[in-house]
Each structure stands twice: as C-alpha cells, then as structure tokens.
Design a protein that fits this description.
By secondary structure, this protein is of the alpha+beta class. The chain contains 15 helices and 17 strands. Strands 1, 2, 3, 6, 7, 8, 15 and 16 form an eight-stranded mixed sheet that branches. It is globular, with a radius of gyration of 26 Å.
C-alpha cells in the first residue's frame, strides 16, 4: 500500500514538473517593450468638417427594401462627390446597383494583384432622442478632450445626426460604425493624391449601402461584379476588430489589436410545436407551450460542443504572455487541462462565443388570451456558427433537441455558413501588423474571430485574404456605443485612422 501511495506521489510530482516546465517553455509571443512616446494626431479642421457633414446625413437602411428611404443615400453620394472632387476626378469610379460605390485608383504595376478597402455608409436607427442639446450645431475642435467614457449613457448628449464636434469628440450615428472608416479612407486618398503619390499596385475601394440589413443589395452585388470582371485581390480590409485598450479584456494586462481573420455564420429557425388547444379550465397534462419549454431547455442545456479552432489557439498563444500564471498553465498544458480550459471559457458569455456555436432563444408566440390554450406554439432560435460547424450540423442538433415532440422547423431569413479562416503569413496581414505597431506602439497584435457579421464575408468570392480591423483604440464602454446611445469617436482616433490608411496605401509593397 505504501509503495502504491509513494508511486502516486512520484507520478503527481512528475506531472507537476512537466506542467511547470511546459508553461515556462511554451512559445507565448513575447510582448515587445517600446520606448516610443505617445504620438500626437493634431486636429485637421477641414477633415473634421467633411466628416461631420457626412454624419449629418441620416442614411438609415431598412431590411424591408420596399420601405427603404433612398433620398438620404442619393444626397450622400452627391455630398461625397462634391466634398472630394480630386478623388473622383483622378480615379475610375462607378456605382453597382445604383448605391454601391466603387473607386479604382490605378497603380504603377497592373501585374500585381490589387488590394481592396471596404466600408459602408448606411447606419442603424438612432433610437429615442430626448433633444437634450436642442439639435444645435457645435464645431469646437479645440476643446480640451474629455477622457474616455466609463459608463453607457442613457440618452444622446448630442443629436444623433448632428455631427457635433465637442470635447475632443465627433458625435453621431456612424462615427464608429462605419462612416469613420469611409471618410478616413477618402481623406487618406485625398492627401496622397495631393502629394502626387501613385501606389505600387491598383487600389480599390468599395462602399456598401445596406450592410446593417445584410448587404445583399450592396456588398454582395459589388463582389459579384468584381468576380464577373475577373478581378481578384491580394488582400481585402474591412471592419471587425479594434484595439481594445488595457483593462477592457478580462485577464489580459495589455492593449490588444484584434484582427478578425474569420467570422461566424448564422442560422435562425422557427420551431412550431403542436399540442392540444382549448379552454384553460381543462388543460392537457402537457401543453404546447410546455413542450416548447422542454425543447428550449434542451437547447440551452445541451449546446454545441466547444472547441478551440486554429485562429483562437493562435489568439491564446499571442495574448497568453500577458495573462496570469494559472491561465498560462492551462493554455500551455492542453494535453492535461484542455477540458478545464474549455469549461472556464464557456462559463463566460463573452469567451463562450469564441469557442462554440452559440444558441440564442429570441422570440416566442403562444395564444392571444389568458384563458386559451394554443394548439400550436412557436419560438425562434438564432445560432451563431463557429468555423468548423455547418448549417447542416446545427439543423441536426436542433432536430435532436425536438425529438419526442411533433414539430415543424422553418428557416427564418437566409442562413450563412461561417467564413473561411484567412492566413496570418500573407503579405496583407504583415502590412497590417506592421502599420498597427507603428501607430499603436506596445499593443499585442493577434488574429481573432469576429463574432458579428460584416460585408467582408461577401468578398471571399474574390480573395483568400480577408481581414477585419477598425483602427481605433477604444474601451468596452466606447465600443458599446455602437448601435447605442451617444455614439462617438475621439478626434485623436479619427485623425490617427487617416494616417493609418495613408501608411497602408503608401507602404504596402515596402
């Protein structure tokens, strides 16, 4: 018995030694220290006025295209042409499906594959606006900058389409999603043309008008147009990741530049559950709504199996060096602790979305009266599909959850498979990483999985290298102003975006 006990102690000690050695020798990316001081990005009043003017145009898209108000979109295109005459006179440009804007800036060497920069100029509705600032126009670019917000505002401090410039910020719907990218790209191009710069290769720009409602009339048609013309791209750049400032990501003691190298797919299904209807005075032993409840509990309890896909494994390798020793130990010893690591990740709703296809019960409908049993109850479930899973996998999973009940499953909208994963050893990724390090010194640059949908997905038709990154440094609260009250971008972030894109265009082939 003593020998067995001694043997177990020796085995435990050996395992402990192996775990510690593996933790210290695991190839976590070393976080490079930097002596670079904080860079200053002075406000350009002309650039700010042009951006503010674009924010003032309420280009709200509508999923019901029959109800789509195109008038602000016509005005926006006119505004863009009037505001950037040199850009439009110095490039080839055209529209696809009337509102998709394409700009082609010819480079020196047409034999090289072009690059493509994306954005969209539609926005989501602003929600309720209280009129707190009386909608009057403010342009005060010399104000002392306010610090980043530390809470979500209950109301808009400035009218959502005011484009007000105050407190070191530009306010309004679209300032972070995504007119900031569109206008910073236009400013970068405008500045380079003024310097008579000619890019080494062709550069294209594509601006969609319905990204917020699916992008099927904008980005998808533009991508198809490129495909029909035989145009493919060395790299495609769109929104997706950000620089998440220090303290924003739990357990990570660094600012992190999150480059979306893939994005999740989605499928929504309506499940109609049959039961016995009638008067509530004589209910069946199990009602239709009770059956639906069982199915919904199954879906939430027995979700799709979690897994670490390659882009997330690389993410942990890159950011692990900034984490606690215990976290490093779990990442470095997945041979022993992978189950514990996945359990920890799935225990938080944010990290859970990185390692599995998520399940969200979003809608439900029963009877219309308090004393009536519905003969049929329906609910809607939305799945966000992890690369490695398919729509067919999710459908089978849902069917299993419904076993034992009489149900009908219907698609809600159009399903979309998860994207492919773009490589990190491409020139397109290297240029982006180099430029991030230049303008955000000291950050950890890492590939990441974009949780939400973007227009980038459509351009997999014409490129194997599709990257999602919005070059702004913001905290969690600032990020949450997207699609929320009080959306704003700091003047510093906006001016840095212009410089960032200028550098990307100038130095792509350096």
């Amino acid at each position: 018995m003593r020998k067995i006990f001694a043997g177990l102690l020796i085995l435990i000690a050996l395992i402990a030694i192996v775990v510690v050695v593996k933790t210290y020798t695991y190839p976590f990316v070393k976080i490079e220290s930097t002596t670079a001081g904080s860079q200053s990005f002075a406000a350009d009043e002309g650039a700010l006025r042009r951006f503010s003017g674009g924010i003032q145009l309420p280009t709200v898209s509508n999923a019901d295209y029959a109800q789509f108000n195109y008038q602000p979109f016509d005005t926006f295109i006119t505004y863009l042409r009037r505001t950037y005459p040199v850009v439009f006179s110095s490039t080839e440009n055209y529209t696809v499906n009337k509102y998709g804007i394409v700009i082609h800036w010819k480079g020196k060497n047409s034999a090289l594959k072009p690059v493509l920069f994306l954005s969209h100029y539609d926005v989501v509705p602003p929600g309720n606006y209280s009129g707190k600032d009386s909608s009057h126009s403010i342009f005060s670019p010399d104000d002392k900058p306010l610090p980043p917000i530390g809470a979500i505002a209950d109301v808009w401090e400035h009218a959502p389409f005011s484009g007000n410039v105050a407190g070191g910020r530009i306010y309004g719907r679209g300032t972070l999603d995504m007119k900031n990218m569109l206008f910073s790209l236009m400013e970068a191009m405008n500045n380079l043309l003024a310097q008579q710069f000619v890019p080494s290769r062709d550069i294209y720009f594509a601006f969609g008008h319905d990204e917020e409602v699916g992008g099927t009339h904008g980005a998808l048609e533009i991508a198809k147009d490129f495909k029909a013309k035989g145009i493919s791209f060395d790299a495609v750049y769109d929104e997706g990741g950000i620089v998440s400032t220090r303290g924003s990501l739990a357990g990570i003691d660094a600012s992190v530049a999150l480059i979306g190298c893939a994005e999740k797919g989605f499928w929504s299904a309506r499940v109609k559950v049959k039961g016995l209807g009638g008067h509530s005075s004589m209910p069946p032993l199990q009602s239709a709504i009770g059956k639906a409840a069982v199915i919904m509990q199954r879906l939430e309890k027995d979700q799709m199996k979690p897994m670490l896909i390659p882009v997330i494994e690389q993410f942990f390798t890159n950011i692990g060096g900034t984490m606690s020793f215990v976290s490093k130990m779990a990442i470095a010893n997945q041979w022993l602790l992978k189950g514990r690591l996945l359990k920890t990740l799935t225990g938080n709703h944010t990290t859970n979305a990185l390692v599995r296809t998520t399940t969200a019960l979003t809608m439900m409908k029963g009877s219309d009266a308090t004393n009536v049993l519905a003969p049929e109850v329906e609910f809607v479930v939305n799945f966000r599909i992890l690369p490695g899973n398919t729509v067919a996998d999710i459908r089978k999973h849902l069917e299993q959850a419904c076993s034992g009940f009489e149900v009908k499953i219907e698609d809600v909208g159009i399903a979309r498979e998860a994207s492919h994963i773009s490589a990190t050893n491409s020139q397109g990724f290297a240029v982006m990483k180099r430029t991030i390090n230049k303008f955000f010194p000291g950050v950890v640059v890492t590939p990441y999985l974009t949780i939400g949908g973007t227009d980038a997905y459509k351009y997999e038709l014409v490129s194997d290298h599709v990257y999602r990154f919005n070059p702004v440094a913001i905290n969690n609260f600032e990020q949450q102003t997207i699609h929320n009250n009080n959306e704003y971008i700091s003047i510093e972030n906006y001016m840095r975006m212009i410089r960032y894109f200028e550098t990307m265009m100038k130095e792509y082939d350096q």
